[in-house]
Amino acid sequence: MVVEQGAIGANARPGRTGRTVIYPAFARTGPQEPARGTKPVYLYLRLSKYHRDGADAIERQRIDLHRKLLADGGWTVMGEYIDNDSASSSAVRSRKAWRQLNNDIRSGLVKAVAFWKLDRTNRVASRCIEWIGECQRSGVYLVSHQDSAEELNTATAGAKLVMGIKALLAEVETDSMSERQLAAKRHLAEAGFHHGGTSPFGWKPGPRVTDHLGRSGVRLVPHPIEFPALRDAVTMVLAGKSLSAIGKYWKDRYEITTASGGFVYEASIYRSLVSPRMVGYRMRQVPEHQRGIKIDLLNHIALDATGNPVVSQEPVCDLVTWMRVRHLLEQARTSNVRKPWGSHEWLLTGLAFCQCGNRLYGHNKSRRNNHGERIQAYAYRCMANRNRGPGNCPGSCTVDAEKAEAFVLGWFFAQVTDESLANARARRRVGRTGSEAATILAELEQTKQERQALIRKQGSADYRGSMVTVLLQLIEDTQLRIEDLQRRLDVLALEEFPIRDGSGLVAAWPGLTIGEKRGYLRRLIHRIDALPGNAPSQDRLTITPVG
Fold it and tell me: pTM of this prediction?
């Protein structure tokens, strides 16, 4: 089934959920000047935890405060400061209304504040008492629906003691709730249960079950559409496919799209594939993302009572395969040469040279055509002036990628004959020792045995608790060595030219991987020299065949 671009697929991912009501930090709700005979007062309303109740708690606080101020008399409500956040530590940083209220108090714009209860302002006792003191020094009158006005606005020792006790009790209550919640989540993680929130891509909540210790909860089970999509994505990454190709495949094959109907973002696909959930691990206390700070997710997997990783859901692939996928994706992200996961295959990388002697590297650049449409342009260009400073390359050569590749492939296919392939095989037999492949095979087999020995140590007494991360790193290092040896072995196999005739190579060319295509080009092409200027590619490129 094929879905047109822009159409919303049957399995569109939900958009980011938001508040039912989003409030500005400050809103003026009253007149510019208070009524005659009254004083201006500002409301501070705060919902400490969002319950998806349509902001009813904010409305209830507003109604109670308006009734109290009307009953007291002498007040005109001028405006409202509203925070609709949570009781978490991140909410403290995001309380925009609270910060603006205090700025306005310090600047003298606010001389009276009304709130529903003191713990709506702050639940840390020392900060709460400090804030009351600042208000008293600034001459700000405090009105509370639940607390005594005399205690809030009197600087006597007794009033300070009462307010201090109330603030301390609020802080103790918050700490107690936090401890209970953390303990509950720790047990949920240890049992492999899902504790709510958005389900990770690939799984969905299953039925409620009870473990052998009597703890009940919900475990994640494979999603009928997303789980197979992840398995296909693993196969595609190992085959060298791009993340953008995976997004297109998901839309065409599974109708998985974004909420707006577009392809799933490459960043979203990447996060799903590098997550330890792929091997069934249960994530625990993953830090909040910070720009420029890299987090190793293997350090944030849940551990059971014996210190072993908790496997809470069916894995997409085994540990070794996942580490290969993670390594390939990480290698692509950190490449300084080209954009491996982009939409263009840089066929001539390593073969094309500038007249200054430096290689030409792939470069992506968007531009607008005559109709104002933005299009993506691909080119090979010399980076000597950029990397080494001006003057290193007098010509600053740039060649259109598609035209240059078409010219080189035309030359290559014209040269691919049975005789040329036979000569290339003969050159390789002369230049290679017979023991090279045997040596690599022996080292590869030894490294695979080392990997299996490390995998068998999972769950042993030597690798528990924090040592689990060490073991996983050892396994990953071994896997990297295996991949390097396998690549060297593949090069030897490729150089044998498994396709024996020229017509067979031409017919099989579209199905070859980018690595195989480059390998065949290098068998017949020594180098490609490019000249600067705007002349056609055939006039600027000089191909030197292998001697």
Answer: 0.47
